[in-house]
Structure formats: C-alpha cells, structure tokens
Amino acid sequence: MQLQIEKESFVTNQYHTIIIGAGHNGLVAAAYLAKQGKKVLVLERRSIVGGSMVTESFGENFQADSIHAGGTLRPDIIKDLKLVSHGLHVDSSRQPFISLLPDSNSLILDPNPVKAAESIKKFSERDASRWDEFVRFMDKAAEILDVAYATIMPRLPKNMNLREGYGLLELGLELRLAGRKDMLNFIRALPMSAQELVEEYFESEIIRAAIASVAIHNSTLGPMSAGTGYTLIHNWLNRGGLSHSNVGKAGEITSALANAVKSFGGEIRTDVEVAKIKIENQIAKGVVLANGEEISANRIISSADPKHTLLKLVGAQDLPPEFVWHTQSIKMRGSVAKVHLQVNGNHGIPAGTLCIAPSIKYLEKAYDAAKYGEISEKPYLEVTTSGNVVSIHFQFAPYHLKTGDWRLETKKVEKIAIETLTEYFPNLQSLVSNLKVITPLDLETTYGLTEGDINHGQLQLDQFLFMRPIPGWSNHKTPIDNLYLCGSGVHGGGGVSGASGRNVVKVLK
Ligand SMILES: Cc1cc2nc3c(=O)[nH]c(=O)nc-3n(C[C@H](O)[C@H](O)[C@H](O)COP(=O)(O)OP(=O)(O)OC[C@H]3O[C@@H](n4cnc5c(N)ncnc54)[C@H](O)[C@@H]3O)c2cc1C
What we know:
The protein is 39% helix and 17% strand. It is an alpha/beta fold and 509 residues long. It has three domains: 203 residues, FAD/NAD(P)-binding domain, CATH 3.50.50.60; 124 residues, no CATH class; 115 residues.
C-alpha cells in the first residue's frame, strides 16, 4: 500500500499545463485554461511579461511601446477574460492615417469617411468618390479573414474529424453570406499584389501608395509582390483600418492579460528561460529551465516561434525527418527596425499614424534593398507619437545583411530614420534628447524572435491557413504528443488579435 502511494505521488504532475512565453498569445491561452480551473504555469525568459506587446522604459521620462505601436485584441477575448476589470481601457476612438508629402500637402485619411474624401479630393475627385466603396470592401474582407482566423484549420491532407469539418462549414457559410460579389473579390484579392488591388480602385499614386504601405507593413515583400493583397487585409483586420489604435497602450493590454491569468489562479514566472522540452517516448513530459530546474506537466503549449520551439527546445532528433525539413524551411525574414526618439520641445508631428510612402515605386525600391541584404537608404517609415516620444517603424532593415554586422549598423538606421523624418519636420533633429534603436538582431536576442521575424514566420500565401506553421500541421498539434503551439507563427497568428492563443485551448484533449 505504502509503495503504491509513493508511486502515485511520483507520477503526479505539478501542473496541468506549462505555457512557454508570456506574449499576448501565451497569456490568452493561460487565462482561458486557468479560467477552466486548470493548474497553469507561464514561463517567460524576460523580466517583464508581454513579448512583442510591451511598454518599456528606455530612460528617465522616456517610455514607449518598445516594439509594437498598438493593435486590437478580439472583442470576445476582452469580454471572456474580463480584461476591462483587469485594467484594460478600451479606447475605440481612431486617429487619422496621414501620408506625408515633401510639399506639406499631406493626404489625411481621417476615420470619418466624409473628411477622408475631402482630403482625397485634392488629389483626385474620382478617387474621393470611390473611398466609401473601398473601405466597405476592406471591412468586409477583414471580417471574413477574422472568421478564418477563428477557425481551427484541419490537418490537411490528413482526414479531418467532424468537429474540424464543422469549423470549415462555418467559414464557408460566412464566405457565402458575404454575397457573391464580395466573396469573389475577397478570394481574388488574396493572391493579388497590393499594387494591382489599389489600382482597381484609385488613380492617384499618393493614395495607392499610402494604402500599399499598410500591405507591406511587417512583411519582407514589396507592393508589387504577389500575396500583398492578403497582407493588406491582414493588417487592416489587426488595426481595424489603416491607422493604429491603442497607440501607447501595448503594455496595458498584456498587463491586463497577466492580471487575468493570476485572478483565475494561474501562475506566471519571469526571468526563467526554457532550455529544453522534456520528451519521453514521443510524449512531452515537462520542461528543463536554463538554470537546470525541471518542471513536469501534462501538457506543454509553446507561444515561442515554431522554429525556436521545434528545432531548439525539442530538437531534430525527436522529430520525423520530413517534419524537421519543413520546420527548417519556414521563412523567417525579419526586416523591421524601430527607432524611438525622446524629444524636448514641439516636434510638430500631428497625432495619428503617419507614413512616408510617396509612391509605389518608392516602396518597391525600399524593399529592393532588403532583397540584396542592404538597409534601405530611402526607407518606408511609419511614425506614431505618444507624449514626448516619437516612434519610427523602419523598413527595410534585413536581419541578414550582405556585408556588415548589426552591432555596427545601428547608427546607420538611426541616422537615416532621423534625417528622413526631419525632411518633413525640420525642428525634429535638434530636439532629440535621447533615443533607442531596436534592430532585427535585438528583436532576436532581446525579444526572442528568430531572425527578427516579428510574426514568428512571414505572412505569405505559402505560410497561410492549412500551411501555417507548416503544411499538414495547422491545428496547433505537433508530432510530439501533448506539445502544442499557440504563438503568432501558427494559424490565426500574426498580429495581436489573440486568436491563436484562444484557438489552442479548443484543440486540447
Ligand atoms: C516592431 C513590431 C511591430 C509590429 N507591428 C504590428 C502591427 O502593426 N500590427 C500587427 O498586427 N502586429 C504587429 N506586430 C506583430 C505582433 O506584435 C506579434 O505578432 C505578436 O505580438 C506576437 O505575439 P505572441 O504572443 O505570439 O508572441 P511574442 O509576443 O513574441 O511572445 C513570445 C514570448 O515567448 C518568450 N520566449 C521565447 N522563447 C522562450 C523560452 N525559451 N523560454 C521562455 N520564454 C520564451 C519571449 O520572450 C516572448 O515574451 C509587430 C511586432 C513588432 C516586433
């Protein structure tokens, strides 16, 4: 009898689920599980929670959303997890999207369509009359994509079970309910280039380029690349339109999520790096931390990117060769840098999301540099402000440089970013009192993003739906039993909707 009790206590796991990474997806998954009464532990290698959604301090009176300008969590997640009571302020007001032009005759795409049309009229009467129809189509397309992201993709070409088939039915119904015209236009738009898509609506180069910039935001693609129709819809969905929402509040979202996890009884440990996932007979049993500590659990969910999780934390020796090959082939192509400026005085930059994207050719040339492993000399910039901080999103700054080393190239990004923006706001350069540059290498070393890829894998058509993260493994499962994926690199992910964190909970056995 005594022997049997000892045996049972030995095999009892400490936790129902361990979640690797406290980015927003890991926290969403943890909160849902904890809410179900499961014993959950989140392990985060950094000393703060939030992953890519953090507000950090870079000096005295110098706080910024370190790498994310803001976005929207799915409203049902906010409601289910009671995030408002956990400190989230939902701000549905929207600011304009402004395309800066050298002659200060900027295009101002206000959220109010009448005001936006007024500004568009300066460039084309015809385009102004088409604005409403374009926004209507984009909102519809984003709605359909949202349903696709909420649907767990079955593991094609495997046989799907009835539950998975039901999800697909719902998606098909949503497409059908969109009406024949929107359904066809949605399907057509996905493989198109952003250039082709905007040309169907607008004649003015300024307007075409402003919209196309959102299509290439965060991807290593140019506006002439096939599939940037899809990334335009993806980014439209994540922002809720062209401009960012919640600017200056990224950290608030993930703090509210962490509060929710704790309030439901979940645990979060920071400053703990998972070094290995413990596997016995193809079954995940727990994790080994970098400090040697071992923690066991019935299930492991990783919100770290798929390459890091599968190739580093699991290791090729425990995975089928073809699966390893597919994982190695996931395209991670970080080419984003971030420059935060602390300024002393009036910089004159208006509120909103500003872009430097004067023409499609300008954007394509900015991307050309990345193709050849160079930093764009004339980059596509997107700028937001929050108090005394100006945050510049810089594309393209490829992780893989043809020559040079990111430890030495930081100054170059800083110089190009400040000088480019100063052309539009002449006082800016002289007002900078402090700054912080985040390079693709920092995105990897500090934020844990393999090759600095902020979406944990490029969002492109061969890494989409049934093919995300890899073909045949789109339902959060892996060849290791009880090991699941839930970060941005899996279907539903990319962006800050929390969909992949929530979806994984639905597939747990
Ligand atoms: C500069 C930038 C701009 C962006 N702009 C936009 C935008 O405009 N619109 C949009 O929709 N999306 C944008 N994104 C993308 C979006 O922010 C990310 O896709 C999303 O936040 C990722 O969330 P996640 O929870 O999946 O992963 P992450 O936030 O990356 O979290 C993963 C966590 O796992 C931790 N971790 C990794 N390995 C380990 C380990 N071994 N042990 C313990 N912990 C580990 C990491 O430290 C991290 O905290 C942007 C991202 C960046 C970086």
